[in-house]
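For the sake of clarity, the format in which proteins appear in this thesis is described at this point. The record quoted next illustrates the convention:

___
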Amino acid sequence: MTVTKQTSEKLVRDFLGSWEGRDLDTICGAFADDAVYHNVPVKPIEGIAGIRAIFQAFLNAFSEAKLDIVTLAAEPGLVLAERVDYFTMNDGTSVVLPVTGVFVVENDKITRFSDYFDLADFERQSGFKL
């Protein structure tokens, strides 16, 4: 299947929006089995099993998540999404984190997802160590 700007953008918008529903299968359904997820300040995670595990850890730590897109640019197979991520921790603590995500899309699946953000800011707000 041909990857277009429109299909790449829709896949990423749907993935980012899926966090509000908190369904791990839906969230992970956007990824290829051999995808790489890289929170750039830390070591990349390779493969869907590792990605599922870290996303489950996030879901376990946060009672709510909303990933708001500020600016999105798409080309066939490549999407850049500037966001502000809003999380509510299980104890009620709010986390507000500016993030820029880079998504590589092949065959209607995300094959690489790199998030760029201030790790110290995230850890200070959340108490969550990556």
